[in-house]
Write a structure and sequence with these properties.
The chain is an alpha+beta fold and 545 residues long. It is built from 17 helices and 19 strands. InterPro entries: Peptide/Ni-bd (IPR030678), SBP_5 (IPR039424), SBP_5_dom (IPR000914).
């Protein structure tokens, strides 16, 4: 019996051995043949946050960073002189210790600075370091350098912890400009001043995180132990750069990332919102500061007639666009100044409404158009935007079905780089665009669109903001109003000027506001305190799990 049992056992063991060998071989083949994964599952209990995004940074140099992917990282590794509270556009001191003292002529800003701050490399922060960083921001001539070079005449350390900045012209929104993520101090020991002398792969600032690792598809930020302010609520942040919205969507659904932010498609947001309502994870929304709008080129027929531009304004149906194009993930917008600011007035809603087709027909008839002589206009958009594509097709459908043939819209598209190169040359009669603000002040939704340095009522704008935007709008009255609001330090008086500006836009219609975005962040259930600042930056240091 023992022999027989032993023989059976040996045979069974041989089968088991063969099975294990075959299993191991299959496992080895499976592992070898599986494509490398872009994501790794967060390690539970290490206190670090894993963030997923498609926003790949082009550079980490604050003097050259001008895209959301770069600016969001710079924001979290740096401090500025001033910053925003989440949910507010009011600035507060950060490395400054008080709001600036402004001279009577509005040209000189004196700023007291915080003591006891050090850079990630141990270099002390002081007024000389801030002077160096602002001069470098201007003189290295990176993408955002115009923000300060157009405004700042000189910057000087007038004390160990006192900075004095003189402006070329009065600019009431200047403190808000100093809250721009790129206007942050960098270590004078680690950076140089000089055109093009950028360091895209490193960052040495004063913020709560320091850069520990920078790879092609991932970054690692560690907590800066010598940070002067409140320490982060987590042990650090791992950032995974996903190659597509689909990959980000899948990484979040499978739990490979704790937080997903920028950028998901509207249908993916809709799906994740549904999951959040079932309790699978969290959806965090915030009012955005990005506006979508239509440009009307007044140098192209038939848009040279104000009645035609006003007819287009009457045709627009924002609730319909929001429902069909955006799955209600935005807010209809009735002023070029978003509702983020208390100076915003919904004047386009009061005067033109939504889908007022009979009014649009009357205006076109007054301008001399009819069924036998229709107004024919091309609507252009950059090819990279499926949202704008759907918006353009929806507007064409409205014209085709509701305007009795008096208005004919033709939808056209071109590759994005070509579109943005050509729009300032006046090639596009109507264009659909988004505006991402540089800083949070109503001025940044007015001056870049409406100001014109050189032009005339007859020729339109030849040089200036409206020429760059493709509307070629020119109004001497508007130029004067913009200068007045830039000089005005009294908030109530400035609010009145913005009211006049919005009324002028309502009559002249060089642009039509369409919608104001909402920002969406998705977080796993075990994550808390996920917040956005009003400039769309996800605030890493608050996040806990």
């Amino acid at each position: 019996m023992v022999i027989n049992w032993f023989s059976v056992s040996i045979r069974r063991w041989n089968k088991v051995t063969k099975f294990l060998s075959l299993f191991c071989l299959c496992l080895l083949l499976a592992v070898s043949c599986t494509p490398s994964q872009q994501t790794t599952t967060p390690i539970a209990g290490d206190g670090r946050i894993t963030l997923g995004t498609t926003a790949k940074p082009r550079t980490l140099d604050p003097a050259d960073a001008y895209e959301l992917g770069s600016l969001g990282l710079v924001f979290n590794m740096s401090d500025r002189l001033y910053t925003y509270e989440p949910g507010s556009t009011e600035i507060k001191p950060q490395l400054a210790t008080a709001l600036p003292k402004v001279s009577e002529d509005g040209l000189t800003y004196t700023i007291p600075l915080r003591e006891g701050v050090v850079f990630h490399d141990g270099t002390p922060f002081n007024a000389k370091a801030m002077e160096f960083s602002i001069q470098r921001f201007i003189e290295n001539k990176g993408k955002p350098s115009f923000l300060l070079s157009d405004t700042v005449d000189s910057v000087q350390a007038t004390g160990d912890y006192e900075l004095t900045i003189k402006l070329k012209k009065p600019f009431a929104a200047f403190p808000s400009l100093l809250a721009f993520s790129g206007v942050c101090p960098v270590s004078p020991q680690a950076y140089e001043i000089g055109a093009g002398k950028f360091q895209p792969n490193t960052f040495i600032g004063t913020g709560p995180y320091k850069l520990a690792q920078y790879g092609t598809d991932s970054l690692r930020l560690d907590v800066f132990d010598q940070y002067w302010g409140e320490k982060p609520a987590n042990k650090g942040v791992n950032i995974q750069i996903q190659t597509s919205p689909v990959n980000l969507f899948n990484a979040f659904q499978t739990g490979a990332v704790d937080v997903a932010y920028l950028s998901l498609q509207p249908d993916q947001i809709k799906s994740l919102e549904a999951g959040a309502k079932k309790g699978d994870w969290q959806a965090i929304t915030a009012q955005g500061s990005v506006v979508s709008y239509m440009v009307l080129n007044r140098n192209q027929q038939p848009l040279d007639k104000p009645e035609v531009r006003q007819a287009i304004a009457s045709l627009i149906d924002r609730p319909l666009l929001n429902e069909r194009v955006l799955f209600n993930q935005a807010d209809p917008l009735y002023s070029m100044i978003p509702t983020t600011f208390n100076v915003s007035q919904p004047l386009f809603k009061d005067k033109y409404g939504d889908g007022k087709f009979e009014e649009a027909k009357k205006l076109l008839t007054t301008a001399g158009f009819s069924q036998v002589n229709p107004a024919k206009i091309q609507v252009w958009y950059p090819a990279s935007s499926p949202t704008r594509s759907l918006a353009a097709q929806t507007l064409k459908s409205l014209a085709d079905t509701q305007m009795d043939g008096i208005l004919q819209l033709e939808v056209k598209t071109v590759e994005g780089a070509t579109f943005f190169k050509e729009i300032s040359k006046g090639l596009y009669p109507i264009a659909l665009l988004d505006w991402y603000p540089d800083f949070l002040d109503p001025d940044n939704y007015v001056q870049p669109f409406l100001a014109c340095e050189k032009g005339s009522e007859a020729k339109g704008c030849e040089t200036g903001g409206s020429q760059t935007q493709g509307s070629f709008y020119y109004s001497e009255t508007m130029n004067q109003l913009i200068d007045q609001q830039r000089k005005e330090q009294n908030p109530e008086a400035r609010k009145k000027i913005f009211s006049d500006i919005q009324n002028q836009v309502l009559t002249d219609v060089p642009y039509i506001p369409l919608w104001q975005n909402k920002d969406y962040v998705f977080a796993q259930k075990n994550v808390s305190d996920v917040k956005l600042d009003p400039t769309q930056n996800l605030i890493y240091k608050n996040i806990k799990k």
